[in-house]
Amino acid sequence: MTDIKQLETELVTKIDAANDLAALEEVRVGALGKKGVVSLQMKSLGKMSPEARKEMGPALNGLKARIGDAIEAKKAALEDAALDAALASEKIDVTLPPRPERLGKIHPVSQVTEEIVAIFSAMGFDVAEGPDIEDDFHNFTALNFPEDHPAREMHDTFFFEPKEDGSRMLLRTHTSPVQIRTMMAQKPPIRIIIPGRTFRCDSDQTHTPMFHQVEGLVIDKQAHMGHLKGTLEAFVKTFFEIDDVKTRFRPHFFPFTEPSAEMDIGYERVGNEIRFGQGDDWMEILGCGMVHPNVLKNCGLDPDEYQGFAWGMGVDRLAMLKYGIPDLRDFFASDARWLEHYGFDPLDPPNLATGLGK
Questions:
Q1: Of 186, 195, 194, 239, nearest to 217 (Cα)?
Q2: Cis status, amide bond into 259, omega within 30 of 0
Q3: What is d(CA 12, CA 24) in angstroms, rounded to the nearest whole number?
């Protein structure tokens, strides 16, 4: 038994002295391998007398277990130490200033979308989203588009191939289907904005086949045209960051609102610069109106109990106006030089406290 205690002391000393996993593996093989000292001792049990085997068997098994546990404990300690060393050598000091050339720039569409979301979020609006691929009901019928309305024709809408029943899916022509989905799924009061991509067959300096919209919807029991005008005037002042802006609302027609209007803001052109809040010229920037009673009915809402207002604006066009971008097609040209010029700092997201666009 004295020899076993001495052997254990020697092996534990070697285990403690191992300073890496390779050295520890050598100790393990020398102790518990096929030709290790403990293994050889175990093999000698068969040559012992029954009395000696009865005494030495449990002692050697205990030794084997204790040495195995010591090796596993040492292995875990060495692995933890190696991980700590790796983490210490590979850590990044996030307090150091970044390298701007590696961060890239935020696209004006993303920037302006975030600006709009920041403004309306501060007013208490939630953000809603929906699918780009829609059916006729959500894109047209529920929004009070008559069967023969020109917006249903191929020259305006990207349709998919007809299904067996003759129906056709389409790329949504506006984000209004999300209004329908929200009204059908959520009980008023509703206060949402809907940013997203939309698609129409059109392409020139101020139109592209794919563009971005933000629509807004308010449904409750008291909403009226005055609330709509106040909301949009507050938005325009905050978005263009001017204290005073002239606005006017001209009667218009949209199938899904009644009454309907287009909102103009006053501006003045000085050279190539457009200055809002001054001048005698007018520029249309969005369409709006009170939600049509037929739309409420199509969504299962009683127009005698609920009413509301909605509006829609083009994100790309607002970006062009605010940041002086002359051609909409450049937004989607994937030109890194253009993005370097018109892009925004990714570490300076829009907020109302420090200003929207930098």
A1: 194
A2: yes
A3: 11
Backbone phi and psi for residue 290, each to the nearest 5 degrees, phi listed first: -85, 135
In 3D space, the residue among 11, 13, 85 whose CA is nearest the CA of residue 41 turns out to be 11
Both tokens assigned to 238: 């905050």
Q: pLDDT in tens for each of the 358 residues of the chain?
A: 557 788 778 888 888 888 888 888 888 888 888 788 888 877 877 777 877 777 777 877 887 888 888 888 888 988 888 888 888 887 777 777 766 566 688 999 999 999 999 999 999 999 999 999 999 999 999 999 988 777 666 558 888 998 888 888 999 999 999 999 999 999 999 999 999 999 988 766 666 788 899 999 999 999 999 999 999 999 999 998 888 888 999 999 999 999 999 999 998 888 777 888 788 899 999 999 999 999 999 999 999 999 999 999 999 999 998 988 888 888 888 888 999 899 888 888 888 876 666 5
Say if residue 330 is exposed, middle or buried (CB neighbours under 10 Å; 0-12, 13-18, 19+): middle
Query: Which tokens in the block code for residue 255?
Result: 């199938």
The answer to whether the beta carbons of residues 109 and 331 sit under 8 Å apart is yes
Structure tokens at 208: 């592209």
